[in-house]
Amino acid sequence: MMGMALWHIDAEFSELRENISFKDIGNGVLIKSAYSLISTGTEKLIACGEVDNSFLPFMSVPYMAGRFSLPIKYGYSLVGKRTDTGQFIHAMHPHQSHCKIAEKDMAVIPEQLSPLKAALISNMETVINAIWDADIQGGEKVLIAGFGNIGCLLAETLTHYGVSEIHILEKEEWKKEIISSFGFSTDVDIDANYDLAFDTTASKTGLQFCLDAVRSEGTVINLSWYGNRTIELSLGGSFHYGRKKIISSQVSVIPEKMKNSWDFKSRKKLVMDLLSQHPYEKYITHIIPFKETPDFFQRLRKGQQEKGLIWSIKYE
């Protein structure tokens, strides 16, 4: 059997290529893919060649092929069905129609969790890490900068952690309408003295606003990744005399303060429980047929993708 995989060939072109025959790959379980999630921020940087190969030890995903200098076979969160047992599983894997995955690299999806929602698992693990890094107690006044595929999941999850006052900073008017329809406030004031702010914008304006808007000794959790880009911040004002903090939050490491109680397996179970219990699928605004992914990435590179929050790939 041959599978098809998405490859970014250069900074302007992606295509579907035949994978090698699975009989040549060695041990593992053959998986027929059902859905995979597009992490638009990270994957745009990679498709545009804006990630240096020095990041390979930190930003590689299992079963990736190629290098960040392009070409590369990359992807993020994949859900598929085991061809031996019929169970749906989740794994970190590039966008690919059929995969051979080691048992240790997959997690069985409970029956009450749909395969479509399960594709959100990896982004939800990012969200949980950010909540742990923020030391959420409940009752905080929170600002979220950006309502993309992390910001919307974060806002929803904070409501289940006892945070009732959530304000969303967004520059796009069409997104403000969506945000209001989900019950979150777009009424943002830089002088509001937020207890916590989460930046998901990957922009200096978003991060700077967060720094300026939190109260004295407030905390900003930075979930953005910039690849090769650098940004400038103004740290001479309230950041300094207000003793404010910036914490980088990243999914691949459990925060040190949580390691006595949590590991990757228990974090994934927590995420699957949250996804099973709450209507996170409402944030998936686009489902793209796998055969259309090269065209999607062409539009993503140019900033011409359709208006939406989360994009998932559906395999035939």
Count every beta strand, where a strand is a DSSP E run of 2 or more residues: 16
Domain count? 2
Largest pleated sheet = 7 strands, mixed
**SSE order, one letter for each helix or strand:** EEEHHEEEEEEHHEHEHEHEHEHEHE
Named CATH topology of the largest domain: Quinone Oxidoreductase, Chain A, domain 1
Shape: globular
CATH class assignment of the largest domain: Alpha Beta
Uncertain ranges = none
Report strand %: 25-35%
Average of pLDDT: 94
Number of distinct helices: 10
Structure in a nutshell:
The chain is built from ten helices and 16 strands. The protein is of the alpha/beta class and 316 residues long.
Features:
316 residues, 5-stranded parallel beta sheet, globular, 10 helices, Rossmann fold, alpha/beta
Question: What does it look like?
Answer:
With 316 residues, the chain is an alpha/beta fold. It has 2 domains: 4-119 and 279-314, Medium-chain alcohol dehydrogenases, catalytic domain (Quinone Oxidoreductase, Chain A, domain 1); 124-254, Rossmann fold (3-Layer(aba) Sandwich), CATH 3.40.50. Helix content is 27%, strand content 27%. The chain has 10 helices and 16 strands. Strands 3, 6, 7, 8, 9, 15 and 16 form a 7-stranded mixed β-sheet that branches. A 5-stranded parallel β-sheet has the order 11-10-12-13-14, with helices on both faces. Helix 4 (121-134) packs across helix 5 (151-159) and helix 4 crosses helix 9. 43% of the residues are buried.
